[in-house]
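Chapter summary example: a protein plus flavin-adenine dinucleotide.
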Amino acid sequence: MMLSPTIAVVKPSSRIEAMPKQVFDVCIVGSGPGGGIATYALTKAGLKVALVEAGPRLRAGIDYNSHGTPFASLDQRLSKGLQPGGGNGSLFSDRRERNHFTGVGDRPDHGLLKALGGRSLCWAGHSLRFGPLDYRQWPISYDEVAPYYSRAERFMGVYGYKDGLYNMPDGEYLKPVPMRCGEQLLKRGVARLKQSGRKMEFVAQRKAMLTQEHASHRALCHYCGHCGGCEVDAKYTSANTPIPAALLTGNLTMFTDSTMTRILKSGNKVTGIEYSSSAGQVEKIECKTLVLACSAIETARQLLINDLANGSGQVGKNLTSHFGVTVIALFPELKSRDASNDDGTAYYHSLLTGLYWDKPNKNFEGTYQVQCGSGLQPRAMVVRNIPGYGASLKRELREKNAAHAGMNMQGSLLISPRKYVDLDRDRLDRFGQPLPRVHLNYEQNDVAMAQDMVETCEEIIRAGGGEVLSTPGKVTASKLAIDSNHWVGTARMGHDPKTSVVNSDCQSHEIPNLFIGDASVFAAYPEKNPTLTNIALSWRMSDRLAEKFRRGDLS
Ligand SMILES: Cc1cc2nc3c(=O)[nH]c(=O)nc-3n(C[C@H](O)[C@H](O)[C@H](O)COP(=O)(O)OP(=O)(O)OC[C@H]3O[C@@H](n4cnc5c(N)ncnc54)[C@H](O)[C@@H]3O)c2cc1C
Ligand code: SF4
């Protein structure tokens, strides 16, 4: 049985008359990866849950459709003001919020998709465990999170190889997906550098997509490469797995198209929230416990607007993300290869990792990984800047794309006082709330890390028998690009209420019935993608919350 068609969405207008006044055990705000798993875990634990989501429910394959031809819906797309990318237009670029924050400094950006499932609808599914070394600055250890990584991987359906890397531990995987030609040649370069003593690893990606039958009964992946909005639900999203399962418990009431505009408090306890429907009505939800899972920037914004849980002054601080530059390789030996369909599970199929895990680079703190891709996707050609026209242009485009490999840096951004979120009181949203202001200023550390990536990748390409087709060369802050979707750390976890916002259960130090279910709570950030850890921590938080309920601490 496929679960997602059973979703019943409660619209604010139809709900108001139908529902008797109810005090929910838990109100969860935000239905992305963090809020989605909390909804599942808490309803399964028998608690009555209200899930409040600002966006609508979008149906895979109906409300977004990445398989269509570029020309099929051109007129429609242009009339809606969308890019003429056709069916291949990405869900994220079509529907992401715009003009919803103020950026200060080095070109910050902030990704937000308002929909049931949040950005899990459009994420790429890369699911890497943080390793034991990555938890050194956290109040909890890898061993405490490991069982939740296992649960999350089994529940989501994650494919991958077991590579045996000590600081990117293996998980519980479905059948893996191999690398493609260009990536195999990068791996050859890495193997040659390793022979001369360099410490690095090159492995295939691990992603939350079904390559085998799975308990969720989602469709199997057919390797079409349009994962930014998988229209058959082979990719895990909050909307296709945990939320439908939570609905089946009978313990969930959903409020979609409903934006939380205020957190209600009495003494040092939260008593509920106010939300505004898309029609502009203001309504109230009463609850015994509140879980914020609005995303790292939006959760910090809500805490600041409501002047809540910020005795430490740390809300909005410790902001970090991933950032980087791109290097592109060309392997002449692949130019005349068979250009058959190798779309795979989108662009990135492999990963350069294992750099500076235990022996830091002398020029910078922290480390980076490099997501590597290749393959020939006719509608997503990576190498585009080729002079000429006609048959020779087409031939060169095909040859260069068939023979290329892209290397995209994902460096962990140094935490510093010059990177933080606060409120822009001069700019209000349509509910009269101040917009978040995101401050990003790159440090010399960030530039030095990116320079190392460029030099290392160029070496790997040459060692693999390739040429460097495109490189940033000498790195400056102006060449660095921020990952607008990987922000974390704005309500960090810690033992000391003076230097952290939540405890190791993701519970506010100051407001005992306030919990955080998103990546705001990260105490430090390695190079690895955030979402699997976000889901594991939110699941762990939910278990702790349910246990406190059972003990009577929260009722
Ligand atoms: C194109 C793309 C590719 C990505 N690929 C990867 C990847 O491969 N691996 C990885 O680990 N991560 C990836 N990410 C990042 C990942 O999607 C995010 O880390 C993750 O979605 C964050 O989860 P969240 O629950 O904190 O926030 P979100 O997913 O942003 O969900 C927050 C939800 O809260 C709702 N909300 C916010 N404020 C309110 C309010 N006031 N009232 C009601 N609702 C509210 C929003 O509408 C939203 O639905 C990618 C992101 C994008 C966009
Ligand atoms: S490659 Fe697989 S996961 Fe990606 S969009 Fe296609 S079917 Fe979905």
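Key point: The chain has a mean pLDDT of 93.
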